[in-house]
Amino acid sequence: MNNIEETIKSTLLNLDVKYEWIQVDPEFADTQAFTDKYGYRLDQSGNTIIVGSKRGEKKFSACIVLGIHKLDVNKKVKSLMATSRVSFATPEDTMLITGMLIGGVTPFGIPESIPFYIDAKVMESEFLIVGGGSRSGKIKIHPKELLKIPNAQIIEGLSL
Fold it and tell me: Which H helix or E strand runs over 154?
């Protein structure tokens, strides 16, 4: 187990999150590849996406949507962040902010200073697979476990 996985598992323990750890071949960490290889559906996968402002003071937020939906970056997230332009964070910014690679980003490792927005549709799932902090692990949880994250907010219409 690497350091980021140890940190994430410690965070899960501290937040009293009930979870199942799924070991993953890093080559299959991206959502579509993961679901194809391991037999899960896209609507059982949650994509944690970092979004950054493009103008003015640099601001970031983290959002989670189901794998079957697209994040409404240009309207909903822009409005939530109260900025004129936003875009997906680069892989470099994502690593700098979270310490995690794309394909492994978990909401349980997002700094508390960054708002965490949960698409309301995520909460309707029987269970959810999210990143494990690295490309070699995923976390299976009930969506309500996301609400244990201190800065979590459920948002209607976060996805398209």
Answer: strand 152-155
The CA distance from 81 to 60, in Å, is 8
Tell me how far CA of residue 13 lies from CA of 51, 140, 156, in angstroms: 27, 14, 29
User: What average pLDDT score do residues 64-76 get?
Assistant: 97
**What domain range includes position 94?**
3-155
Residue 52 maps to which CATH number? Answer: 3.90.960.10
**The pTM is what?**
0.95
Report the number of distinct structural domains present in the chain: 1
| Residues 6 or more apart whose Cβ sits within 8 Å of residue 157 | 72, 76, 120
Nearest to 122 by CA among 103, 144, 150, 148: 144
Report how far Cα 59 is from the mean position of its chain's Cα atoms.
17
160 assigned to some structural domain? no
pLDDT tens column, 99-127 = 999 889 999 999 999 999 999 999 999 99
The residue with tokens 């269970």 is 127
- Helix extents (H) in 15-134: 31-38, 78-81, 91-98
* Both structure tokens of 64: 């989670």
